[in-house]
UniProtKB/TrEMBL annotation:
GO terms for biological process: amino acid transport. Residues 1-24 form the signal peptide. Gene3D superfamilies: 3.40.50.2300. It comes from the Bacteria. PANTHER family: ABC TRANSPORTER SUBSTRATE-BINDING PROTEIN (PTHR30483:SF37), LEUCINE-SPECIFIC-BINDING PROTEIN (PTHR30483). This is Leucine-binding protein domain-containing protein. Keywords: Amino-acid transport, Signal, Transport. Belongs to the leucine-binding protein family. InterPro entries: BCAA_transport, Leu-bd, Leu_Ile_Val-bd, Peripla_BP_I. Residues 27-373 form the Leucine-binding protein domain.
Length: 414
């Protein structure tokens, strides 16, 4: 009887260990972004897209490496660089080797420096940084490192494409630049000034200012200054609640010109702007939604909306992150050796279901892809945002934007 009891205990322990090992075999990706505070809706929708992409593109297809699944582990950084570093350490302590983040280049700058330092000091627990939306050009220039990969076009690439469209508007004479006061907002402003001076030296920049990020409750004073300046167009890199606040204030204050943006769609922004922004808001982005890039993308979009009726795929690049990571892990034959995975990502060409080919430029780990300029409208829209009836319709495309753009990156490889 004692032996039987002992055997049962051993069997139960073996089952528990086996179940734990099976769970531990999942390839975990830490999602470090705001899940509370003024930018919670942006972070939460991004999290849902990562979770769905992992299931739809990897887990439901049999996983990678013969059946291993992806698991997204969420960490709320409250949009704080300091909090992000705490959550990064928690993730590393949990054995997570892949870090995804995108909201705030200030956070991304803190993370990439910390990850570079950690990997130099801890070669047995190295991690990769999958940057899906933080677009400060410095991250793939002077601050580049081997462990950081950017899956979004940087602010300079986006502004280059956006100002191509603006430069073609002969009626454009005066431009006002406004953005959030941190590294990304400053990068957008600098790129706008540089590109406009080169492409349209006759255009006058009548305003160039920054405001505190996530703290302005009433944008009316800014809107009044913009209108008083006589600006024909506005350029802003604002996102989240700051994009809603600025956009609504401009329109409600009587501004009638085009507003050129980076992040003015989805996560409640489209619904908040609605009819008033029709034909007014223009957006630089990657991925074809209207018209959709492929039948595969259409199926993914419909499946996501069935699971998240109140959400949208407004960051299709998240699916590219998951797809390219899966391809890199398969190519490396391992998920544990992140150096081998990184070497697979370098120079990778990837056919995105959202349209076009992607190229991970090896010299700086900057993704190169098609860039689209679209307009906020309810006409010819197959997929709207925020259940609003409004979406973004592509008007023009720059193929493989800035493929040969210079970089100051001096990559040091392990």
């Amino acid at each position: 009887m004692k032996n039987f009891t002992k055997m049962c205990a051993v069997s139960a322990l073996s089952l528990a260990i086996g179940a734990s090992a099976a769970f531990a075999e999942n390839i975990k990706i830490a999602f470090i972004d705001p899940l509370s505070g003024p930018f919670a809706s942006t972070g939460t929708n991004g999290l849902h897209q990562f979770e769905f992409a992992a299931d739809h593109m990897v887990n439901e297809q049999g996983g990678v490496l013969g059946g291993t699944e992806f698991e997204i582990v969420a960490f709320d950084n409250k949009i704080s660089p300091k909090e992000s570093l705490i959550q990064l350490q928690v993730a590393i302590d949990q054995g997570i080797r892949y870090i995804a983040q995108g909201n705030s280049s200030g956070v991304a700058n803190a993370l990439t420096e910390a990850i570079d330092k950690h990997n130099r000091r801890n070669p047995d627990s190295r991690v990769l940084f999958l940057n899906y939306a933080a677009v400060d050009p410095a991250l793939t220039n002077d601050k580049c490192n081997f462990w950081h990969f950017r899956f979004d076009a940087n602010a300079d690439i986006k502004m280059d494409a956006l100002t191509d469209v603006m430069a073609a508007d002969e009626a454009l004479k005066k431009v006002y630049i406004i953005g959030q006061d941190y590294s990304f907002g400053k990068a957008v402003a600098a790129a706008a000034v540089s590109n406009l001076s080169t492409k349209r030296s006759d255009v006058e920049i009548v305003g160039n200012e920054l405001h505190p990020i996530g703290k302005v409750k009433d944008f009316t004073p800014y809107s009044r200054k913009i209108i008083a300046s006589g600006a024909d167009a506005v350029i802003t890199g604002n996102w989240g609640a700051d994009m809603v606040g600025l956009g609504k204030s401009l329109i409600e204050s009587g501004y009638n010109g085009p507003i050129y943006t980076y992040y003015a769609a989805g996560s409640g922004i489209t619904a908040a702007l609605g009819e008033s922004a029709k034909g007014r808001i223009r957006l630089i982005a990657q991925g074809d939604i209207n018209p959709i890039g492929s039948d595969e993308a259409r199926a993914a979009y419909n499946a996501f909306e069935a699971k998240h009726p109140d959400g949208n795929i407004d960051q299709s690049r998240i699916f590219n992150v998951i797809g390219m990571l899966a391809q890199a892990i398969e190519g490396a034959g391992t998920a544990d050796d992140v150096v081998a995975v990184a070497k697979q990502l370098e120079g990778m060409e990837y056919d995105s279901m959202w349209g076009g080919k992607l190229f991970m430029r090896p010299q700086d780990h900057q993704i190169i892809q098609n860039m689209n300029v679209g307009v906020h409208t309810d006409e010819n829209i197959e997929f709207d945002y925020d259940n609003s009836g409004f979406g973004v319709l592509t008007e023009s495309t720059v193929e493989m934007a800035s493929m040969d753009s210079p970089t100051t990156c001096e990559m040091k490889r392990p």
